[in-house]
Amino acid sequence: MNTISIVEVGSRRYRVRTGLAGSSKAPAIDSGATSHNPPSESKAKHGKSERISLNIPRQVHKYIIGARGSTLDKLRHESRAKITVPPERSRSDVVEIEGLLDERQKAEELITQIVADNMAKVPYTHFISLPLLDIDMQRKVSEFQRDAQRVLQNVDSSSFVHSGSLHITLGMLRLLSPKDVTRAVEFLRSLAKDVAEIVGTKPLLVSVGQLATMEAASQARIIYANADDFDNSGRLRRMCALVRDKFDSAGYIDEKRELKIHVSIVRAKPAHSSADEDDLAKKGSRGFSVNAGPLLKEFGSMSFGVCRVGQIQIARRFRHAENGAYENDGALSLL
């Protein structure tokens, strides 16, 4: 079902129909030709031709251009404006539109719709994370992974999540410019009062254990451990639900999956895979799975201990510190 989203392009905001609601944007490409459109009829009757600049993240420029420039040609024809998309090598986000007022408005409106229609194709750049930094828990996970490698067949060693990067994911984000990142961090911090009302003054302790799979155990791609309040207070789930719902309502999240509070331990990849994490995210390894039945039978009830959660982070995908933890652009402290 189509929904209405608010999309910012340049200094304007538009209500546009899109299959997925989101406030993020999106992979760049050389625009090639920058020729003018044929002149519009009787320009003197319609005012003065002017040029405006739109800051549109270069990740979405390829959708504005289209195959062999076909979409850009169509935009120029329908709007009768001159539209210039910067070459990929320039690393610029600025798209220029030149024409009469109605031509510029038409071009801006069409570009906005293209951005909204193609947003779901853009890879996520960040995620909302609860990092689990307890050293003892990380040690137990590493020990389990060594045992799991013995049980699981034909999986690459990179299938096992680095124990330093253990976390709970609350939602995936597309933040395609520094301004997007700053806004997301500020929005997270604006939730401080609401979060504090749920967490209170007691430390938020999370117990991690009880292995399960996202898919059928015989065809597992993700093996995870459940995470829950150590004191059975329900604070963890209420806090996670609050943060995710707030980001969803603000247009940052376009996932349709329900919130599942868990800690990924294994992401199955075929043995001897040479692809790094970024390549696997782009190309996917969805055709590969493992039979996790024997592993669950032997280790399914395992506990990895208890960890105090100290932050909610806007974490960067594929970017890790030396200790394996995900790098982040900002956080809300829970201490």
Topology:
Blueprint (H helix, E strand, L loop, with lengths): L2 E7 L2 E7 L31 E6 L5 H5 L4 H10 L2 E3 L9 E6 L1 H18 L7 E6 L3 H17 L15 E7 L4 H12 L2 H8 L5 E9 L8 E8 L5 H15 L12 E6 L9 H7 L9 H7 L3 E6 L2 E10 L5 E8 L2
Helix pairs in contact: 2-3, 6-7
Description of the molecule:
The chain has 335 residues and is α+β, with helices and mostly antiparallel strands. The protein has helices at 61-65, 70-79, 101-118, 135-151, 178-189, 192-199, 235-249, 277-283, 293-299, and strands spanning 3-9, 12-18, 50-55, 82-84, 94-99, 126-131, 167-173, 205-213, 222-229, 262-267, 303-308, 311-320, 326-333.
**Strand line-up across the major sheet:** 7-6-12-13
Average of pLDDT: 85
Work out the helicity level.
25-40%
User: How would you sum up the global shape?
Assistant: elongated
Taking pLDDT < 50 over at least 5 consecutive residues as the criterion, the unreliable ranges are: 1-6, 10-45, 280-284
**Rg over C-alpha atoms, rounded to the nearest angstrom:** 24 Å
Range of strand content? 25-35%
Largest sheet: 4 strands, antiparallel
| Structural class by SSE content | alpha+beta
H/E topology pattern = EEEHHEEHEHEHHEEHEHHEEE
Distance between the termini: 42 Å
Give me the number of helical elements: 9
